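Input.
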Amino acid sequence: MTTQTPFHLAVITAGVTQPSSTRLLADRLTEATVRALAGHGVDEVVVEVIDVRDVAHDVTNNVLTGFASPELQVRLDAIAEADALVVATPVYAASYSGLFKMLVDVLPKNALRDTPVLLGATGGTARHSLAIDHALRPLFAHLGALVAPVAVFAASEDWGSVEAGRLGERIDRAGAAFAALVSGAPRSARVDPFEQVTPFEAMLTDLRA
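Output.
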């Protein structure tokens, strides 16, 4: 009898406030991914959350000295050993936060090579949404990670009563696509919008009736 190895999912959240919309987005992306993984037969998922805010001083000291504290090393190991990664950062000055980049800078070389990564970002306005494509994707591509094609940006207005539903749909879609990517599931069949088209003759008949 074989025992399924737990799937290790590391979550990096770089919000600096408490409560944090960035942490909320990371949590919801993680929940959507775990739910979707269960649908692919991955029932045991170990989630390890790395809140950069909690180790901000340790990250700074590592940048300055080249040595990680025991607390930071535990988090770096969790990232390097994860089967997949969920990342969420606030957008500052049209890019990821400096604190987030410092954490990435102290990761071991090739730590993220071939690691699937789901990207998320938050900002005060939807005008910052392109930061995912012009800042985050190139960063993780440079690190050799397998960046998921579907990402989620959440602006302040996305958490409102009407837009929250649409944000939830986008989160669920991203989680489902990411789970399919990391589990190796085949892509779902596309629906052909022209598969069931009313014949022209039938349309003419309806007009004459």
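The two ends are 68 Å apart (CA to CA).
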